[in-house]
Design brief:
By secondary structure, the protein is mainly beta. Helices cover 7% and strands 26% of the residues.
């Protein structure tokens, strides 16, 4: 699922707590499988159409559960609120479908094999000091 999301903790005192995630303010989309964030997303988002805006109020069990998430200041008993704009969806198992590009192998770079679950083989050499990109499939 590709979404913009704002997440806040529900505060019973009516305090407007700062968001623990806010991709609306950064302009960046969040791309995650619906089952990889919190259980509430997995329960609510399948079947939601692209272009929808959704409010999710997740009790602790459907949020971060008994562990909470100390990295972003969420306690185990916190109820979470999410506003999500669904921008796109990608079916599970989807992969790039473009035409493979023929490249001369570069022994200094990793090799990538396989399609649905690519395998990256790292060479036994130092990593490049500069940014490197290689097009492996040419899409349309």
């Amino acid at each position: 699922m590709v979404v913009r999301v704002k997440g806040q903790v529900w505060d019973t005192d009516g305090v407007d707590l700062p968001a623990f995630v806010n991709s609306f303010s950064t302009g960046q989309a969040l791309i995650r499988p619906v089952d990889s964030v919190v259980p509430a997303w997995e329960k609510v988002l399948p079947g939601v159409k692209v272009g929808s805006r959704v409010l999710i109020v997740a009790p602790p069990a459907d949020g971060f559960g008994d562990q909470g998430n100390s990295g972003v200041g969420i306690f185990p008993d916190d109820t979470l609120m999410f506003v999500l704009d669904v921008l796109d969806s990608v079916a599970p198992g989807t992969m790039a479908t473009g035409k493979p590009v023929s490249l001369a192998p570069d022994p200094a770079l990793p090799t990538v094999t396989g399609d649905r679950n690519p395998r990256i083989t790292v060479p036994q050499s130092a990593a490049p000091a500069d940014l490197v990109e290689r097009l492996l499939r040419q899409g349309s």
